[in-house]
Amino acid sequence: MQKDSFNIVLCGMGFMGTMHAQIYSRIPETRITAVVDTNPDGAATRLKELGLEVPVFATLQDALATVPSDVVDICVPTDQHEAFVREAAEAGKDIFCEKPITLTTDSAQRILQAVKAVHFQVGQCMRFWPQYEALQEIIASGKAGRLLSLSLQRRAGRTSHSVGDWLNKAERSHGAALDLHIHDTDYVLSLFGTPQAVTSVGTREHSGLNHIFTTYHYDNGPAVVAEGGWNYPAQWGFQMAFQAVFENGTVEFDSTATPSLTGTFGHEPKGEISFKKSVADSSSVQIGNLSDLGGYFSELRYFVDCLKTGKHPEIATGAQAAESLRVVEHEIQSADTRRTVNIPSL
């Protein structure tokens, strides 16, 4: 049944939960009716700072039994995703789940079984990030000729913002390879599909594989490599970037540069490339080192639009997120064994 407005139960008021709360306050069709957090006092304080008056519950069960709800938005640590998704799905709620979908392929398959009867989307936000969308359009248009190579980077200072420091606990996050680098893996798959094999090297520390370099092997495809790591000094900051080389041009993105997206086509001099900006005014949104809402707003706007029309999401689906997870698992295996790993077809 199609609807025009949606009651949201938001699970987790850490960094991403706080981000989602701000975004929902800017989407007219949504209203947060409850927050679920293991630290109710802390969550209530963050909500007050955002100017939101929302009841806070210690469990999803209590929230669903008390307030009206259509959607459960899950921003809890990754090792809790499956339990929250299954509880929400059993209650018949549509679900938005932050990335990565979960920690293992087996867990992802259980999630996919659980959400068959509801709308489900995963927060692989690079599929909605304006500069990455622009590159995808340039590749599809053929204006620069055939893509020869693509290099992607995602780098960050040592993470310290997670509640209870869960991101630095390998058993809970599987390190930067899964929590950070999966964004670029997912984007690569959106462009070219699943590679035939991967070759990875990396740096493993107490908190997991925290810096990874991967080559994705495609028969008759472009050369594709990606780097991701969060083992830079704590004050280093954050950078995401890519460089695409075509037969007749280049496109470069650097989140720390102005302009952020540049390129050259044919004999033209290098210059700024225009791209679709976020549709929300981001002047008062608190999102750390990033300069605007980018794909965060767009992915939730897309999810709500799917709910309004009764359509299941076709971008950042559960199946796509599960496949990205499967590829990263093979990347981690390659890095740990220092061998190229073939990826079996499903």
Write the layout of secondary structure elements.
Layout: E1 6-11, H1 15-24, E2 30-36, H2 40-49, E3 56-57, H3 60-66, E4 71-74, H4 81-90, E5 94-98, H5 105-114, E6 120-123, H6 130-141, E7 147-157, H7 170-173, H8 175-179, H9 182-192, E8 197-205, E9 208-217, E10 223-232, E11 238-246, E12 249-254, E13 261-265, E14 271-272, H10 294-309, H11 318-337, E15 341-342
Parallel strand pairs: 1-2, 1-4, 2-3, 4-5, 5-6, 7-10
Antiparallel strand pairs: 7-11, 8-9, 8-15, 9-10, 11-12, 12-13, 13-14
Helix pairs in contact: 4-5, 5-11, 9-11
- What's the alpha carbon Rg, rounded to whole Å? 20 Å
CATH top level assignment of the largest domain: Alpha Beta
Helix percent reads 25-40%
CATH superfamily of the largest domain: Dihydrodipicolinate Reductase, domain 2
Identify the overall geometry. Answer: globular
